[in-house]
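Cont'd.
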Amino acid sequence: MTVDFRKEVDYVARLARLDLDSEEKERMVGELGAILKTAQKIRELDTEGIEPTSHVLDLPAVLREDKVKPSLPLNRVLQNAPHRRQGYFRVPSITASENPAE
Amino acid sequence: MKLYEMSATELSLLQVRGEVSAVEITRSFLDRIEEVEPSVNAFITLSPTAAMETAVGVDKRRHRGDKLHPLAGVPVAVKDNLCTNNMLTTCASKVLDNFIPPYSATVVTALHEAGMPLLGKTNMDEFAMGSSTENSAFQVTRNPWDTERVPGGSSGGSAAAVAAGMAPLALGSDTGGSVRQPASFCGVLGLRPTYGRVSRYGLIAFASSLDQVGPLALNAHDCALILNLISGHDPLDSTSLPEPVPDFSDDLELDPSSLRIGLIRENLSEQFDPEVRASVLKCVELFEKNGALVEQVSLPHTDYGLGAYYLIAPSEASSNLGRYDGVRYGFNAGGSDLETLFSKTRGEGFGAEVKRRIMIGTYALSAGYFDAYYLKAMKVRTLIRRDYMTAFEKYDLLVGAASPTPAFKIGEKTDDPLQMYLCDVCNITDSLAGVPSLSVPVGLHSGGLPIGMQMTASPFREGILLKAAAYLEEAGFYRPLRPQPGLAEEGGL
Amino acid sequence: MQYETVIGLEIHLELQTLSKLFCGCSTTFGNEPNTNCCPVCLGLPGSLPVFNRRAIELAVMAALTLNSEVQRKSRFDRKNYFYPDLPKAYQISQYDQPLARGGYLEIEVDSQPRTIRLERVHLEEEAGKLIHSGESIFDSDYSLVDYNRAGIPLLEIVTEPNIFSGREARLFLENLRLLLLYSGVSDCKMEEGSLRCDANISLRPAGSKTLGTKTEVKNINSFRAVELALNYEAQRQEAILASGGEISQVTCHWDEESKITIPLRGKEGSSDYRYFPEPDLLPLVLDQAFIENLAANLPEAPLKRIERLCKDYGLSASEALLFTENRELGDFFEAAALLYKDSSNLARWIQGDLLYQLRQLNVGIETVKPGLLVDLLQLLDSGEINRPVAKEVLAEMVGSGAAPTDVVREKNLGRIASKENLLPLVEQVAAENPEAVEKIRAGEDKVLAFLVGKVMGLTGGRADPAAVNRYFRELIKK
């Protein structure tokens, strides 16, 4: 089964927030199509009744005691911030309606 | 013999006997770096001042009579995807080219507390995605054996540093062979521990269910020493094992007659370089001659490993790399609105391979495709793991080539991503199964390049891997496998 | 055409832990921005999450309280999307293996019992806070991000679409709040954001079994607003359907000012969250003993408390309700009742004068010691002080925490009731107010209060008004 990535590339690039120029997009279509074709080989396998492995460790979760530990000092939190203002990180203005989770 | 030519074990011993100081040792490596680094380009950041400071401290403590870790005063190089407090950590990416972490990875702290001078941060494929270190945004690292060739990847910088005598030990990371393959290209040992053996806290994530920190070393005993140091449960890493850590260096004696070896048919394919196959078989013959049971075994789902890996790893990566948006740290491309800021920053900041993998991963996880791709790949992973567990019922070691060929030329595979992915074909299934795997140098190719053999054991049995490696070392298979001065004329150092 | 409204609610609750869900940063509210942060909750490269045991316990307790079936095994997933308040560009949540499934809450609507069914209860992490700048002459518009709240443990409760009016929704939420407040899992303060509610609402022809197209209503900040917003939205939808239109599945923003819902422009491709199992966290496995232990130690449920207050203390239904809804007041009552047997009197004083003083002085009940109120009542019962004085002492007690006996002694407030002390004053006041006396003799008994008041004044309020009243009567009617 061939994968026509051409139809998908814009949608996926937007979903991944990746700016691609037209040359990159063109290359992607070819490269990703080929890679996915190889990856798709796995669909040949009959995996009926097989449990998926999401963790190789067969262990239950680790739980931590509810104790407060020191946080990072503010200057360390902000030390790599490209834009900051009065103790906050600064970003271009947004409206609430831009929130993908809303 | 120069100090920089010695192993970690030897350097440790010399200090304990009072014959040499940590400062002298560190000085030797720093001088060596100055000498050969311009031809190798293994380091992104060098930290000579910090290294010397640690060395001075170690000498003081030793002079005082303090009890010191065996690796105290033994310098180390660390892959640049391990966070080092207050020291630049870039993942060889433009997106982090100015990132100064306010904390250190658990393993880095362990090295520091043991008194190991940190020589610097080594070059890698961007975000550990690659098999040649050519995907670094900053520089190309050259194989010390032949500077026209790649050192392998993604831990190419670490492997090259050890091979060139710039560090006796290094830490790398292995997701789909990124420690083992460069180790084999550079003629050193490279270990991928059992998943969960070593803490991932502070290891900048590529594929969370596959990533593991692993050492690169000159011999089994050195490898054992550093494995002791970095292994163990970390309360900051929920995926780190509560399994107790044995002393891996305690007993490296092997009785080959007790060994059961399975030769993985799929990792000794006719398609592989014939000398690679021959070298591996010669090693295995040695074991067999001395009483080991050797049989051919098939891991039937190996063919599907590449497909599963190239769905699982990019999927997890696409999620792990979402945070690079220019808001809290790293490259910020600017933009008057959010959409532009994010897309431009990521579009300009990430290299081509990273973008490819983010795209595949995003696609594979997207609505409508999850079942066909990611979920399916997770099921294939179960089948692959089963292959190993079944094989381990009969065998202690599963053996094959660490890579189908020795080091290839710089630029040889950069045009075709798929070609590059095929380099991982020997290493991927071990990662998917979460089992420990070691690459040992077992000889030189007729072209003068190192050949690596890979040995895999069942979970937690790093010990048997190291014993087998020590046995091969005793038998002269790889001592010392450092580029000899004469190689300089043939393109090496 | 008659339509019926179908509503489903999605409630988010901040759990009362000391530290965050995945790291040890403090959960304290109101700190300076970005001062409760660490590599984990900032999502710095290389950081990893580790579960907070207490958060799991509180989540299980909430699920048990809501009759939801706690799953022995549940799993966490990543919900991926890009927004500055989300430091990792994914939220660790639970998608297809939630902590608990099903559940219900029994409420009363118009004296009819109603069972509101729940779909699921799960755990997830909170995002940071965004502050949007206003217009400024000098700065270009920007927004600011504070990650203090990022990583706070959130409980998400989803009801089935089985609520049928705005009023029911409000009643459900009020009951839910009380129940969860009592279970100790959250302080449930909608004003502080520890309880949030979004609603899905659709209409369908009365009697139909299929659901209509729903809209989502957000930005509801009070229980009252829940009712108003849903009523408004139902009307808005009905108007569209009545005129032959179709409902578009959009998000509506509730505008508290103008009391209307405003449909927001739909965004395409925005809800592909690419859920997949969180690889950094192992599956949550809760053994039977863990769950049973929590079940056995659940704090008393509100209904039980109401029952018990009526039964054990003989309180009226409304008193019991007050002392249950205001839990601290109820705790105060029960602590005092250990020391004082007349529960009715106690209850009366607490909900009357004490509550009044607390409001006047703007202090909380926690500043008052139950024992002090008991002392006060005992002074009153023994006749040592009179009622007006008792009220005065109460004010002092609430204001300064002073012991009633001390106040009475220091201010010399003991009740004066003896004839030998009062009679001279009664005679004096009577002599000074002959017109009043005449009026009383003529039958205008109400004027007695005036004369009594005069004596009260002369005694600094300490005279026993009943006794003074009696002496006047005796004197005048002689």
